[in-house]
Amino acid sequence: MFMETLETLETLETTATVAPHIPGYTMSRPLGQGSSSTVWLATRDMDGARFAVKCAKPGAAGDRATAQVLEDLSREMRLLSDVQHKHLIRVHEVLHVGGMAEGTQGIVMDYAAGGSLANLVSARGKLSIGETVTILTPIAQALEYLHVNGTEHGDVSPGNVLFTAVGMPLLADLGIAAQVGDKPQNPGVGTPGFMDPAADESKDGSTSRESLQPHRDVYSLGAVGWYCLTGAAPEQEQDRPPLSLLVPEVPKALAAALEAALDPDPRNRPTARELGTAIFRSAAPEALDLSGAVHSSVIPELLTRRETLGRSPRQTILWLTRWRRLLQVRRRPVLRRSGRPRRRHDSPRQDRLRGGPGGSLGIRLVALAVVGALVGAASWILWQQDRPTTAMAHQAAMETGVADPGQEAEPRDLEDAQKIKDLPDALSETLRSADPLVAVPALSAVRDMALGERRLDLLDSVNAPGSPAEATDKQLSDYLRGAGTAFAGLRTTLTALTVEGPPQPDHVLVAVTAATSGYEERLASGAVVRTEGAGKPQQLRLDLVRSEGRWWISGILGAVSAG
Ligand SMILES: Nc1ncnc2c1ncn2[C@@H]1O[C@H](COP(=O)(O)OP(=O)(O)OP(=O)(O)O)[C@@H](O)[C@H]1O
């Protein structure tokens, strides 16, 4: 359930109850409230790390007794401790909370700085098709994970879809989730507009495995998708116009997937996995623009924003300048759809993921001009990209079957294996290291080689396919191809490599200090067209995904202090 809107988000601070006291933490501001709890931003005194602390709202539980609210909280804690998925909010501890009702507990969990989907839509209205794909795909994956592990979420709704500062979606609030063998939880509790209308009919009170109804979550996710695209929850089937009437630009496959999820007959609905797959394949994911939808104090740490396509060059420059100032890192504009030649193994679906097989000539010229203008900057800075949020969707493509592994994995695998084999032995070995701190310098060295020797196809062995890093390097390689030049002598030195946050088996953030050497931009004849001095060291974070038995770069983010 969600109660706060963007307007109320900023005013929550003045209206929320007195901040709770938790030894070892300093409470900052309320982040949001549900029917039964208030969630506070808290800073851990020991190390300055920030968390969200969910505290029961005594006396404000409506028709649910406070005891029930507390039971839900401890239940949520137990459930969250049992599950681990990169798109599920992680819980750290449960603590006694003072300053409120006696005996109240607080769940200390990951802080989602990007706020909730409810806030986002309330601030911006309906979202784009690509943003919707970016949000729904990982949430479908989280649901699939829960369902496979015998858990039903029970309240998939806009208030429970949260975002990290880089716009990665996280599913929150397992307060009313049900597990195999549980008695049905809080019948009738959920978020109006997002609850499966068929649920009441199918409740039989049994406590067997059959009492789990994952199709209810599927309905809710379909409703959340509808909400993203239209700005409102779907009506009941008989009162609902087809999605394509409300959103004429919606791809047929996306409309069909969401409408199937909303089918009144649960037996006709896809599973969470099928729904995620269909959504992911329906359109290219796009970064979320969270900038207008978060508390003002959070804006400087956001790493998501709208793409530059569609803005005039002047608007783009002004806008980029503003963002550079905010982020205090040097960035380059991302111009999508820049006419990348097809890879041999590219499928039409990959074309769709990349936004189509080619952009207009105008866009390509602008892209080239911008790259040309920026090419004097150190290449690691050029590598920084602006759309980190799609990393998880690309990762989904490679890892979880949301993509079509049967169609893509094998040819890519073979081609990559061949390219790696052609590298010096030591390099190809370290490239395959399971340790991301070993693999990163190798990836960087291969990239230097690609740019320095104009072996541009090597970039395919560095960047995850379809990732923001690939899109950005593609502009650089297009420039080098067009100019017929290479960055001779380019060397990137990486120091202070550390893994940031808890590493996942298939996803990790590596913080590095990167400095580029001076280099000469040379034509194939050896003629030097430009000389570039050494770059200043830059603090970066590399977003890595693991696939095909090794690490790939999905995105380069500016350094942002975590926690
Ligand atoms: N980890 C978090 N980081 C940032 N904000 C959060 C976090 N968890 C919750 N919030 C904010 O607090 C709001 C309420 O949280 P939540 O839905 O978990 O409360 P609730 O009392 O369980 O709600 P209800 O019982 O009505 O479903 C969310 O919509 C969101 O805006």
Written description of the protein model:
The chain is of the alpha+beta class and 563 residues long. Among the domains are: 25-110, Phosphorylase Kinase, domain 1; 115-181 and 192-198 and 212-298, Orthogonal Bundle (Transferase(Phosphotransferase), domain 1); 415-558, Roll (Nuclear Transport Factor 2, Chain: A), CATH 3.10.450.240. 37% of the residues lie in helices and 18% in strands. Strands 1-2-3-5-4 form a five-stranded antiparallel beta sheet. A four-stranded antiparallel beta sheet has the order 11-12-15-16. Helix 4 (129-148) runs antiparallel to helix 6 (214-230) and helix 16 packs across helix 17. The radius of gyration is 24 Å and the shape is globular. Bound molecules: adenosine-5'-triphosphate. The site of adenosine-5'-triphosphate has 26 residues, from strand 1, strand 2, strand 3 and strand 5. The chain crosses the membrane at residues 361-383.
